[in-house]
Known about the structure:
- This protein is mainly alpha-helical.
- It has helices spanning 2-16, 20-31, 36-43, 47-64.
- The protein is built from four helices and no strands.
- The mean pLDDT is 88.
Amino acid sequence: NEDKNITSIDLKSSVSCLPPRERQVIILRYYRDMTQQQVADIMGLSQVQVHRIEKNTLKELAEKV
């Protein structure tokens, strides 16, 4: 359980260091539980762009954590 808390703290600090667009995609997708299409509509992007941003950002976060 302690390891899970440490990972959560690491993840939150990593997310806070992301560029604004990438941070917004991750927050909307994983903290607000929205679909890629909902995120795309809010941000004025296509669903494909959101998918690409999300995929690349998650890969980057995984390398940091």
